[in-house]
Amino acid sequence: MEGEVLQIVAEVECGKDRVARVVVGQHGLTVVAVAKSVNEAMQDLLAQQLFIRILVKVNGKLYQIANDPRLASSRSGVAR
């Protein structure tokens, strides 16, 4: 398995946009920090390179910061 990358996709289903906003965090920092922490812990446990992706969904649809006017305006100038 040397050189292979294990890809893990986790879906977090939220019932409301406001819950998804909390899960994602300001500028996406919370969900990124969780993904990094999980990645490090799982790599240590499995002794294999990993790629972790956490998808936050609201009622089955992918939640995106760019679609939230309260968060998008604070990210002006940042590629989405």
UniProtKB/TrEMBL annotation:
A molecular-function term among this protein's GO annotations: RNA binding
Highest taxon in the source lineage: Eukaryota
Protein name in the entry: Ras-associating domain-containing protein
Biological source species: Gongylonema pulchrum
